[in-house]
Amino acid sequence: MTMKAVILDDARKIVVRYVPDAEMHETIDVLLRITSIAICG
């Protein structure tokens, strides 16, 4: 499956792309689901 991700592609360039779902590879890995964000100015 894929998920939509916001990626910092270059300095001052942000893009939205579909990327593969995150996977656990090590026993110390952690997956976080972000449900909301805010932008402060």
3D architecture notes:
The protein is extended and about 35 Å long. A two-stranded antiparallel sheet has the order 1-2. The chain is built from no helices and 2 strands. The mean pLDDT is about 90. It has one domain.
Topology:
Layout: E1 2-10, E2 13-20
Antiparallel strand pairs: 1-2
Put simply, the count of helices is: 0
What is the gyration radius calculated from CA atoms?
13 Å
Give the strand line-up of the largest sheet: 1-2
Give the distance, in angstroms, between the N- and C-terminal Cα atoms: 35 Å
User: What oligomeric assembly is this protein in?
Assistant: single chain
Q: How many E-type strands?
A: 2
N-to-C order of helices and strands: EE
Total domain modules: 1
Outline type = extended
Q: What amount of the residues lies in strands?
A: 35-45%
pLDDT averaged over residues: 90
Helical residue percent?
under 10%
The biggest beta sheet is recorded as: 2 strands, antiparallel
- Uncertain residue segments: none
Helix-and-strand structural type: mainly beta
